[in-house]
Design goal:
about 55% strand, mainly beta, 15-stranded mixed sheet, globular
């Protein structure tokens, strides 16, 4: 990311440049694992934070505005994409809106709530061309892509009581064929060339509805030592020409489940050590293409914060 702007205690903050989507900011704040690549499905997989597409988790030419209204009445947020693919974006157009509030419950803690709605037009999901295929042989330095119009809504909640924090989130994403199909190839983010012949624009015979939900908790054992647990669930409908709920095709109905735990100790101002594990499993349509459908991933490390 890289951006600049203006900030006022009264009128809020307005920034322009390459910035996180409102959904990525929301997940970082409301995921019990903080969007961790090692312990969070919605952290390492960009589907949730990009309104359905990893490439849309950040917008290169984004206008972003945030403001607190009144004496903690509520907060508002919005972003808007200026330009399209030519400005190094992964969609032709995008906008999002957010509303939230912190509720002080006095001796019973604090409840934070947020809702985010996002629209992406001409969203790109790039794929490598199959080695040995005619398309790869003809243009080996290009990629394929699926284009869709996506919209999503996300509900977020966090409850804090002394050393305990409880988290919950839900997102509903809808994918449909683009309302303005491409007529030429284009250059995607990172300078990758996509030829029109390798663009899929009629993937969604029926709309795809992907539901993502999660919950979890963190507990501060001491001011420098805390532990966390989390659970994540994906549910996809069958959106192909015929209904199916097997792993025969990626368009079949399917599920993903994941659970994780970690412990983190900040033993110095800039240093912490951590360890944990994430288990994940895919079924039916979301297992299409997988050699192994269950995974156990232990991780431990030492981190230095600049």
């Amino acid at each position: 990311v890289g951006y600049a702007g203006f900030s006022s205690p009264t009128y809020g903050t307005l920034t322009f440049g390459r910035q996180n989507s409102l959904e990525l900011d929301g997940v970082n704040a409301y995921d019990p694992m903080g969007g961790s690549y090692a312990f969070s499905v919605i952290g390492w997989q960009g589907t949730a934070v990009g309104g359905g597409r990893t490439e849309d988790a950040r917008i290169t030419t984004a206008l972003k505005y945030r403001v607190d209204v009144g004496d903690n009445w509520f907060r508002l947020g919005a972003d808007y994409q200026v330009g399209g693919y030519d400005q190094n974006n992964a969609q032709q157009g995008a906008w999002a809106a957010q509303i939230g509030k912190d509720i002080n419950l006095g001796a019973y803690g604090k409840l934070s709530l947020d809702a985010i709605y996002t629209v992406d037009k001409g969203a790109v999901s790039t794929t490598a061309l199959a080695a040995g295929s005619a398309a790869f042989a003809a243009n080996p330095n290009t990629m394929g892509a699926t284009i869709s119009d996506d919209n999503s809504w996300m509900l977020l909640a966090k409850y804090t009581y002394h050393q305990l924090r409880l988290y919950a989130g839900y997102e509903n994403i809808t994918f449909v064929n683009p309302s303005s199909p491409l007529t030429t190839g284009f250059e995607n983010i990172g300078g990758f060339q996509v030829l029109l012949a390798n663009v899929a624009q009629k993937t969604f015979v029926n709309p795809e509805h992907l539901q993502i939900s999660w919950t979890g908790a963190r507990y501060a054992i001491t001011p420098t030592l805390d532990v966390g647990v989390a659970y994540y669930h994906y549910d996809q409908n069958s959106f192909g020409a015929k209904f199916c709920n097997t792993a025969a095709a990626s368009t079949c109905a399917g599920q993903l489940n994941a659970a994780s735990f970690d412990i983190d100790w900040q033993f110095a101002k800039k240093f912490d050590v951590y360890a944990g594990m994430m288990w994940s499993a895919v079924q039916n349509g979301l297992a299409n293409g997988y050699l192994f459908r269950n995974n156990y991933a232990p991780t431990a490390g030492l981190r230095f914060r600049f």
